[in-house]
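Protein Record: Sequence and Backbone Structure Tokens
======================================================
Tokens: labelled as protein backbone structure tokens, with as many entries as the chain has residues.
Task: work out the structure tokens from the sequence, keeping to the layout shown below.
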Amino acid sequence: MTNAPILGRHYSDVKGVISKFASEAALNSLDSAFALSTLKPIAQADPEDWQAAALLTRASAESGDTAAREAGIAHMIDLRTKGLTPPGMQQYTLEQVTVGETTLVVRMSLVPWGYYKVYALGQVFNPQGKIFLRATLESTMRIRRCLRRSIPTKPPRGFVVFP
């Protein structure tokens, strides 16, 4: 199986590709405003562009726009369900926070993975770039069954429901 049809569509637009690279560089430089202003038109022009959607979700999270972040997470899961993300893509960077010389990177799973069904992974890096703390948000089948009984048909805001 090849990613060519999925990737080819996004690499045909050189300006869009450069804009996405520039937006990711801006996010890595803590400039979410630039990333948001650059990515919104790209994502609106092509809602199936998973690269723009993932970066826009990250920019929303890093700018503090929780409503847009939650919508972006749901959109990424929808893109995965429709087969519009690369088949091997397991997670994407949701947020990166730097305090002093320490950086926390939070990755969101498109599909929960592993025995404990990890749906978010946080890694804290020291100044040398080495991980010194790792935390996961998990949901085993037993917990998910309990939650299904206790959560109304429409989950409260902030809950991520995986297919």
